[in-house]
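Thread: Modeling a multi-component assembly for a lab meeting

Hi all, long-time lurker, first post. My supervisor asked me to bring a structural picture of a complex we are working on to next week's group meeting, and I have zero experience with this. I have the sequence lines for every component (233 residues in total). Could someone generate the structure of the whole assembly? Inputs are pasted exactly as I received them:
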Amino acid sequence: AQKVTQAQTEISVVEKEDVTLDCVYETRDTTYYLFWYKQPPSGELVFLIRRNSFDEQNEISGRYSWNFQKSTSSFNFTITASQVVDSAVYFCALSDYYNNNDMRFGAGTRLTVKP
Amino acid sequence: ETGVTQTPRHLVMGMTNKKSLKCEQHLGHNAMYWYKQSAKKPLELMFVYSLEERVENNSVPSRFSPECPNSSHLFLHLHTLQPEDSALYLCASSQGQGLAGGPEPEQYFGPGTRLTVT
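Re: Modeling a multi-component assembly
Sure thing. I ran the full set together rather than chain by chain. Output:
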């Protein structure tokens, strides 16, 4: 069975602080995809990044970075120098590599960045 | 229009009403999805259509009825809903559905329809 756990329900930081959102997953598949999505107050889930299980390289995109570690089944997301516009709910998700019909989402982490 | 659009954005309906939610994707994708997002609960996958055929129906009550007339359009027909059906209904689409290592397995979401059942 596939499962995604985002243990942090809510996080509040002050602008310019760094913040890490944790994601731990469970799967019996040897090949799979991991994703992060952002859901701002408007409601639409915005795709941020996809990693496949073959590639454990960390990735950086501007103020965003992702740390994928198969050994600990984690795919953590760090925002550097947070901004008020980063306030949103962030979802981690997992799908099978060969059949991505069923994308399993974590419960989400609500990030509030205060000015 | 770009991406995935959904109409209406907000809907209030009584328990005896019949209404439909509409989703349209402008991305050339071949799979479409309906999700339900309730407060304090994870996203629930309701239905999946791949190449216009339903491939997933996750024990959704029959008062929800999907329709996919073509690869760009997806509907969710609603009838005799219950107050607990009040939620944000999200539509999504993706490419390379079911294909190993398809080019874009990620799903792209619409803005959702906020449904309130009174």
